[in-house]
């Protein structure tokens, strides 16, 4: 995700969090139906923030997937080497974890 998109997302989420916080503060000062309404507004603000975050994450994941596919198609030998290196790293981490667990028992 480009830095500008991340900054925009961060600012949007901060604004929505501030809005939810304001609604909750308003609810704390009120009682009865007014408090219920303020909590409902807060819940909607949080739901909008979550939906926005999900949409941005899906868009970023799709963009990343497309870039990876393009790179792998352009450089299949390099992709093979990277897959081998990542697989080796995962196996090494698993072996290290297993050895640590065995030494603790």
Labels describing this entry:
105 residues, mainly alpha, 2 domains, 3 helices, ElaB/YqjD/DUF883 family membrane-anchored ribosome-binding protein
Care to describe what's here?
It comes from Brevundimonas mediterranea. This is ElaB/YqjD/DUF883 family membrane-anchored ribosome-binding protein. 94% of the residues lie in helices and 0% in strands. It contains three helices and no strands. Helix 2 (32-74) packs across helix 3 (76-104). The radius of gyration is 23 Å and the shape is elongated. The mean pLDDT is 81.
Distance between the termini: 44 Å
How much beta, percentage-wise?
Answer: under 5%
Number of domains: 2
What is the SS-derived class?
mainly alpha
What characterizes the major β-sheet? none
Low-confidence runs: none
The tally of strands reads 0
Radius of gyration: 23 Å
SSE string = HHH
Give the count of helical stretches: 3
Shape: elongated
Protein name: ElaB/YqjD/DUF883 family membrane-anchored ribosome-binding protein
Organism: Brevundimonas mediterranea
Quick rundown:
The chain has three helices and no strands. It has 105 residues and is an all-alpha fold.
Topology record:
Blueprint: H1 3-29, H2 32-74, H3 76-104
Helix pairs in contact: 1-2, 2-3
Organism: Brevundimonas mediterranea
Protein name: ElaB/YqjD/DUF883 family membrane-anchored ribosome-binding protein
């Amino acid at each position: 995700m480009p830095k500008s998109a991340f900054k925009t997302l961060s600012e949007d989420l901060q604004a929505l969090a501030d809005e939810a916080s304001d609604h909750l503060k308003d609810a704390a000062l009120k009682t009865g139906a007014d408090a219920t309404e303020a909590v409902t507004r807060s819940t909607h603000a949080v739901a909008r923030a979550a939906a926005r975050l999900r949409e941005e994450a899906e868009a970023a994941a799709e963009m990343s997937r497309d870039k990876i596919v393009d790179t792998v198609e352009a450089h299949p030998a390099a992709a093979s080497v990277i897959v081998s290196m990542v697989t080796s790293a995962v196996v090494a981490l698993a072996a290290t974890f297993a050895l640590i667990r065995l030494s603790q028992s």
